[in-house]
Structures are given as structure tokens and as C-alpha cells.
Amino acid sequence: QVQLKESGGGLVQPGGSLRLSCVFSGSNFAFYSMAWYRQTSGKQREWVAAITSGSAISFVDSVRGRFFISRDNDKNTVYLEMDDLQPEDTAVYYCGFYDSRSGPASGSRNAYWGQGTQVTVSS
Predict the structure, then answer these.
(1) Which has the higher per-residue pLDDT, 118 or 112?
(2) Contact 66, 83 (CB under 8 A)
């Protein structure tokens, strides 16, 4: 019943920008804390940006100042604005739920994921 669909990825040069979207199909979107995660080959999913049901935001140090997360509860959508992209940002990006009592890292092993969207940063 739960469905998440990510979109907006692509190929950009270093210094470029992208905006990712994640649409949630279901009920009570406004009650959920949501985060963006990324995964590269051979690694586990790692969170990069998070937003609580109360719209408090947080970021990992490597993206702070370059990425921004927001949500539109009327559209059941969470966004990730990415600026000044670097090659190390290359990954498949996913959105997912997390427990606000434990932090966004607690959602890394969620059972519910969309297909993800590929972000590639290369000259």
C-alpha cells in the first residue's frame, strides 16, 4: 500500500544543481518524518538530509550548506535541492521514513523504498 517515487536525478558537471522529488502515496503524510538517503556501489544506504513532521531539518556535514530539504504536505512530497554538486555526491538517491526518536540513521534499513533516482556528477 505504501508507495514512494523518487525523480529528478540526472548527469551534471561539478558545480551544477539538481532538485529531487519524492511523492508519497498513502495517508497521513504530514505525520511522518522523512529523509533522503544515498547509496553507492558496495556501500550501505546513508542519510544525507532529514525533515521531521514538524519541519525541523538536519544534514550531514558533507552536504550542509549545499543541500536543502523541504516538504509540501498538501502535495505529499519531499524535496531535496542540491547545489554545488561534486563527484563524491554521485549515488542513487532514495527517500524513506525514519523514527524521529532515533534520528534519520535509524531509517537506513527501512523496508519501504522507491526505485531511487540516479545522480551522476562528472566532468
Answers:
(1) 118
(2) yes
pLDDT, tens only, 24-83: 999 999 999 999 999 998 888 999 999 999 999 999 999 999 999 999 999 999 999 999
| Residue 113 CA from chain centroid, whole number | 11
Which residue is it, cell 525514519? 98
- Antiparallel, parallel or unpaired: β 10-12 and 117-121: parallel
Helices (H) and strands (E) in the chain, counts: 0, 10
Cα–Cα distance measured from residue 109 to residue 121, given in angstroms and rounded to the nearest whole number:
26
CB neighbours of residue 72 within 10 Å: 11
The three-state secondary structure class of 1 is coil
Instruction: Quote the pLDDT of residue 1.
Output: 64
Q: Are 38 and 46 in contact (CB under 8 A)?
A: yes
Coarse DSSP helix, strand, coil percentages of the chain, rounded to the nearest 5 percent:
10, 45, 40
CA 85 to chain centre: 15
